[in-house]
Amino acid sequence: MKIPKRLLPLIEAHMVEDVIGQLQSGKEAEVYVVRAEGQLCCAKVYKDENNRSFKQKTQYTEGRKVRGSRRARAMESSSRYGRQEREAEWQNTEVDALYLLAAAGVSVPKPLGYYEGVLLLQMITDEEGNPAPRLNDVDLTPEKAREYHHVLIREAVKMLCAGIVHGDLSEFNVLVSKDGLVIIDLPQAIQATANNAFGLFERDLVQLAAYFGRFAPELMESRHAKEIWKYFENGKLKPDTKLTGVFEEGNRKANVKAVLEEIEDAREEEMAKRGFRKP
User: Fold this and answer.
1) Non-local CB neighbours of 196 within 8 Å, separated by 6+ positions
2) HEC string of 234-259?
3) Which of left, alpha, beta for 238 (phi over 0: left; psi -120 to 50: alpha)?
4) At what angle are helices 142-161 and 197-212 packed, to 10 degrees?
5) Where are the beta strands (DSSP E) in the chain?
6) Fewer Cβ in 10 A, N or C end of the chain?
7) Residue 19's closest CA among 5, 46, 37, 1?
8) CA-CA distances (angstroms) from residue 25 to 30, 52, 80, 87?
9) Spatial distance between the Cα atoms of 239 and 154, rounded to a whole number of angstroms
10) Distances from the Cα of 131 to the Cα of 100, 140, 218, 244, angstroms
11) HSE of 73 in the Cβ direction (CA atoms, 13 Å)?
12) Any idea what DSSP says for residue 218?
């Protein structure tokens, strides 16, 4: 295949030996299968802001720490330099998060390097050595849905213990590998101390309950987010904290309907990009 322009610097720098083909094109990046040091891995090429369809970016950048006051001022402007700095910050967020979460034992692809806006990642494969499918593309039994839901709740807890909220955790951002579930796509990850961190954390967990609830309906009733966040706020959350999925709301009821409607809108957008339409 013709080598994409954005991958040429990595070949010239001898970081990549060969480009095998395109694996996928997502809302914020294109992913290619490449050969590096004799092994297959993935090269994630980030799209620029004009070509990226990821919505509501402001809620993910709120509260992010920016190195240097000059950079912070530039990122608030509409200048060319400001746009470049915003793009660099957007991309570096995923790089930093992956290194941090991998070190914390979270199931994410191992980062192998970052150069000229391209992130090299461990290739996640299935039992046959093929690229692992997304969770959304796998048929589930009720038992497997309960198992996977439990696994991802524990992974979300480990992420929170490491100070990170995914911010877009759904069946589209989880791979089913030969070794289990692997969480991907983290450019929108935010620090757990951000003002809107709980709102995004709750949405992540409601999205998981909504998806797995299609196969095991009782999971729709789980209320892990507030339970987990209470432990987190009190400084008592640990990766192995025992959870029940039950939380007393008091007199105030959560607007679950509104959250589910937002989830459905996001799902329809994702499916539309894949060429599917609602009947």
Assistant:
1) 59, 62, 63, 190
2) CCCCCCCCCCCCCCCCCCCCCCHHHH
3) beta
4) 170
5) 18-25, 29-36, 39-46, 111-115, 118-122, 164-165, 174-177, 180-183, 190-191
6) C
7) 1
8) 4, 11, 26, 18
9) 7
10) 24, 19, 32, 34
11) 3
12) G
Instruction: Print pLDDT tens along the chain (279 aa).
Output: 789 999 999 999 999 999 999 998 877 789 999 999 999 999 999 887 655 444 445 555 555 554 555 544 444 555 555 555 666 677 788 999 999 999 999 999 999 999 988 999 999 999 999 999 999 999 999 999 999 999 999 999 999 999 999 999 999 999 999 999 999 999 889 999 999 999 999 999 999 999 999 999 999 999 999 999 999 999 999 999 999 998 876 545 555 666 666 666 666 666 665 555 454
Residues pairing with 45 in the sheet: 30, 118
- Which backbone phi and psi does 102 adopt, to 5 degrees? -60, -40
List CB contacts of 224: < 8 A, sequence separation 6 or more.
153, 205, 209, 243, 245, 247
| DSSP 8-state assignment for residue 196 | T
Q: What is the distance between the alpha carbons of residues 116 and 66, in angstroms, rounded to a whole number? A: 19
Which tokens hold the place of 179?
């070794």
Q: What is the rounded distance in angstroms from the CA atom of residue 209 to the CA atom of residue 215?
A: 10
Q: What angle do CA 192, 161, 224 make, to 5 degrees?
A: 80
Among 134, 213, 208, 127, CA closest to 174: 134
Residues in the chain: 279
| CA separation for the pair 106, 207 (Å, rounded) | 19
Q: What type of residue is 159?
A: M
Domains of the chain: 5-273 (1.10.510)
